[in-house]
Design brief:
- It is a single chain.
- This protein is α/β, with parallel strands linked by helices and 464 residues long.
- It is built from 13 helices and 18 strands.
- The chain has a seven-stranded parallel beta barrel with strand order 1-2-3-4-5-6-7.
- α11 crosses α12.
- The C terminus is likely disordered.
């Protein structure tokens, strides 16, 4: 084995159960193809068989209503039954990667919160999906798996099944989710997968401040089947038309996330499996092995959802990889956790975790100053600041930046909160190596608990 490896990262948009009645399936066909069809099981079967005339859209519609795609895991019992096999050692190991290593999952967990309508019966609540997978990783001893972040922007209708592109135009759930994750679980993400595959300037600049690894690029060679779907036209939703069609991660440009530039975070290409568009094909896998043979850094990421049966997707991807790898005997391939893959492929220099030393000083009865410092530079110019009040409300705010990447302060007074109104203070930051530090302070006692995360739950080093 002489060449760079192909690092294979399975990114799962981890959203829990999803329900879809036949009426909603036809509603999606109307939204995607502008087809007005009377919903019925009989017509659905004809569409699946491709025998109903649609003026040339038959094959594209077949892809959307494929029986596999409509066989939703609509309860946690169904999700867990699937996961029991997926997370077993026997399923992971057959076949293994070039070194015999088993399949690795990267759970990018979403919170379904702050919606006014939930017709798809998603599991609504802070931490619900995250805690479910946190428990499964512990119970199954799956320390090799990654635990990461996935976010769904809210549509203006605030309906849980609608897509959107702006991260906080219709809800402050992003700041609520991350602030609660910091304070309630002493956790903060270093890797991200975008909901609906959407990045826009708002999310681009947000990620650039906090999260070093972004598995979002869906650049593909254009094909007619994808072009027939209205939601993919003109850059609507997941717009990757200008992005590099390569498996080598890139730094984006400040003004265009699709163009390589001088930003800090790394953007990796991540194609779909087991769905209706931007699908991983054999040519894409061959491209990955060819780029590795040319000594380029290769992270070949794939993505699907836990609300469908992922077993055929994993088996199909492994077989495709094994078949292509036979033509590149000098190129090893490695099943990998997401952060580990980026570090290894890009040969990133290791760094110690950020220190995040917290000192709380009293100025007078009504004013206190929190001073935070880190000798190791943070990934972005300031850490995340989360506050929980004694009334149980969670908030996010900016620091006053004394020295970017190293020193900050926050003043508790009448302009923010008096210190006596605060129950918990949480501060979180990544370094550029993707190691996360979370420091949580009880302001009444000034006791700080600190945790360092390295991708998975079991890679925690804790100090108090």
């Amino acid at each position: 084995m002489k060449n760079n490896p192909v690092y294979i990262v399975h990114c799962i948009d981890t959203e829990g159960p999803l329900y879809e009645p036949v009426e909603v399936t036809f509603e999606r066909l109307r939204d995607i193809f502008h087809l007005e069809l009377e919903p019925s099981v009989g017509l659905l079967r004809r569409l699946q068989a491709g025998t109903y005339p649609l003026g040339g859209l038959e094959s594209a519609v077949q892809k959307v209503v494929d029986p596999h795609l409509l066989a939703y895991n609509d309860t946690w019992d169904k999700v867990d039954a699937m996961l029991a096999e997926l997370m077993s050692e026997s399923f992971r190991a057959e076949p293994g990667d070039s070194s015999g290593g088993g399949w690795i999952y990267n759970w990018f967990c979403v919170d379904h919160v702050d919606f006014d309508a939930n017709p798809r019966r998603r599991d609504m609540g802070y931490h619900n999906v995250f805690e479910h997978y946190l428990r499964l990783i512990r119970e199954t001893g799956s320390s090799q798996d990654g635990l990461h972040f996935h976010y769904h922007p809210h549509a203006f209708s605030r309906e849980g099944h609608r897509c959107a592109t702006h991260w906080w135009a219709a809800s402050d759930s992003l700041h609520q989710i991350l602030s609660r994750r910091v304070i309630d679980h002493h956790w903060f993400p270093a890797a991200h997968r975008p909901g609906f595959h959407v990045i826009r300037p708002d999310s681009h600049w947000f990620l650039e401040q906090h999260i070093p690894f972004d598995f979002s690029n869906q650049a593909v060679v254009n094909n007619r089947a994808d072009g027939a779907q209205f939601g993919l036209l003109g850059g609507r939703f997941g717009d990757w038309r200008r992005a590099p069609v390569t498996w080598a991660p890139y730094h984006p440009s400040a003004d265009d996330y699709q163009v390589p530039g001088n930003c800090r975070r790394w953007v990796a290409r991540c194609l779909n499996v087991g769905t209706r568009y931007r699908l991983l094909e054999e040519r894409d896998v061959r491209q990955a092995f060819q780029e590795a043979a040319e000594d380029r850094p290769v992270v070949m990421a794939i993505t699907n959802h836990d609300f469908r049966d992922m077993r055929p997707d994993v088996s199909g991807a492994r077989e495709l990889i094994r078949r292509v790898a036979a033509d590149y005997p000098q190129v090893p391939y490695v099943f990998s956790e997401a952060i580990a893959a980026m570090r290894s492929a890009l040969n990133l220099p290791p760094l110690p975790p950020c220190d995040l030393d917290l000192i709380l000083e009293r100025v007078n009865d009504s004013t206190h100053v929190l001073k935070v410092s880190s000798e190791v530079p943070t990934f972005g110019p300031q850490p995340w600041l989360a506050l929980k009040t004694v009334s149980g409300a969670y908030h996010f705010d900016n620091f006053d930046i004394e020295t970017p990447f190293h020193h900050w302060q926050y003043v508790f007074d009448a302009e923010t909160f008096p210190l006596q109104a605060i129950e918990t203070i949480g501060v979180a930051a990544n370094n550029s190596f993707g190691t996360t530090t979370v420091a949580v302070m009880n302001p009444a006692t000034k006791v700080v608990s600190k945790q360092h995360w390295n991708g998975s739950r079991t890679a925690v080093m804790a100090t108090t």
